[in-house]
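call fold target=Interleukin-17 receptor C isoform X2
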Amino acid sequence: MPVSWFLLSLALGRNPVVLSLERVVGLQDAARCSPGLSCHLWDGDVLCLPGSIVSAPGPVLVPTRLQTELVLRCHEETDCDLCVRVVIHLAVHGSWEEPEDEEKFGGAADAELEEHGNASLQAHVVLSFQAYPTARCVLLEVQVPAALVQPGQPVGSVVFDCFEAALGAEVRIWSYTQPRYQKELNLTQQLPDCRGLEVQDSIQSCWALPWLNVSADGEDVRLVLDVSEEQRFGLSLYWNQAQGPAKPWWHRNLTGPQTITLNHTDLVPCLCIQVWPLEPDSVRTSICPFREDPRAHRNLWRAARLHLLPPQGWRLDAPCSLPAEATLCWQALDGGPCQPLVPPLPRENITVNKALEFPLLKGHPNICIQVNSWETLQLQECLWADSLGPLKDDMLLVETRGPQDNRSLCALEASGCTPLLSRASTRAARLGEQLLQDLQSGQCLQLWDDDLGALWACPMDKYVHQRWALVWLACLLLAAVLFLLLLLKKNHVKAAARSRAALLLYSADDAGFERLVGALASALCQLPLRVVVDLWSRRELSAQGPLAWFHAQRRQTLQEGGVVVLLFSPGAVALCHEWLQDAASAPAAHGPHDAFAASLSCVLPDFLQGRAPGRYVGACFDRLLSPDAVPALFRTVPVFSLPSQLPDFLGTLQGPGAPRHGRLAERAEQMSRVLQPALDSCFRPPGTPGTGRGMRPEAEERT
């Protein structure tokens, strides 16, 4: 039985928290004042022109506060519209200035002040109202008797009936005087919809609202619309973004009743649901039920991506706003935690999908961005790694500037910031004098500079070279000997020079599939390729473990300009789907030598971050798996079906140095004859014991 984790009803019946609204008599706008004041509403609307602020010539009447109240303006007993009543509170601002030369004017000045004190105040108060698609401005004339004129004191209020607005609309109200003596007052209010008002019998658009339940059953999220079979309604799913307009995601016009299933991986906190009857001027009711759902917040962070925007910009892309802060840090080549840096990024929450600037002079591959939420690290990206290359063995020097031009230098290391010329037993302390000389001679790159300090990146390669000079000399001698030996095998050297590394990754579904992979690997060895497959490295795989073995082979293959071949089978596709559904918990490996399951933790980031093209190739076998069954993420690289597409597959593996098409076709024909028996052995008659696992049925299409 489904376990309801969140239940919302948009029903015709009464909500436990509803408002009963006053009914306004008459269809014309009206104004009334508090006792002691007189007011008049001008006929018709006026232009909304606030104008500039001017100085008050003396005491003036100004609005000080706005209040709203919802009422019903009815044409008939059951034909009403929602209306916004506005209350404007007024006060006296300023006072009469006394003459500068009181002695000169004497009694004349006193008489003038007395005359002003006996005068009443009059003001023209403008009330502006906006609620898409409506915009109105009305003018109220208010007069205050002299007895109530006390500078700085409230005098009463004016009530305006009323501005009509749609249910659920956002309204904005401004108030100011003409001429304007101060900044205009403003008020923004989200009006309730049919759920929060006792209006079902008064507003006709509320009569036919669908009943929507949101519930969960296992991993699925169900939207159940319990309406009559004849009723037609619209349903829209959208991302309600804090910055910018809502972004539509899914929309359908349906006929009730309906049950719609959402995948739990599609949930994010800002995913909202809007439903409305397909009738003229119908009310659209929106709910956002996933704001507090933990799974939605996890999915949001999985979807978030950091991007570098040349020359000195960056952006965090995400479907929703994120309560997060960003900091810069320095990632050393030898690993360890990323060290926070002095130039801070703004501490306020990051504005997603908006270009931001780095407070840096230069970029560096070792400078990374950390995104934290509630003091928990969520994302870390070294954004310059793609454009400036891999991490460098540079030492970061931190210069601190104090009063009276006092300066101090330290080197940022894993143990902290080590002062130069200190007696510590760290690499920076041992090379302190040399680093100072490099800084003074301009060999270090300045990354940041302001009144408080500076950051410098100093290369350390030459010191590594000096330390290992004797080792390099011995290596050169050994290389000379090896060169002489290799000259004896010139032809073999040429062939090896043309060879390219190919790392085969597959899921060990069954023994028949392993034999098929072995046959493919053996056939590829007949080409100028260096083939690496775990079938031939069982001892190393057992000693190092699948993950460590794959890391080492993948790094070596890619550094040599090779290619990683993903051999997809039904078992491999199932593993990929498990990872894509919830990357936070890796699926268990199928066996002690299953490098494919272990490798997904490193293969997936390359595909998600767009680094796979040119480095990865996909393949599957005819009749065993269709290329369309390969997850869409992995189809961003070429996926070949073997042996039918062997010529194209071999050309891609061998790269630019591949032989001409005729030669490739000949080799492909030879390999096809080798592969066919192994491929046929994977298919046995139905009911035969030991039959390998078939392809899983494709997942039901998401609605």
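return ok
The longest strand covers residues 60-76. The two ends are 22 Å apart (CA to CA).
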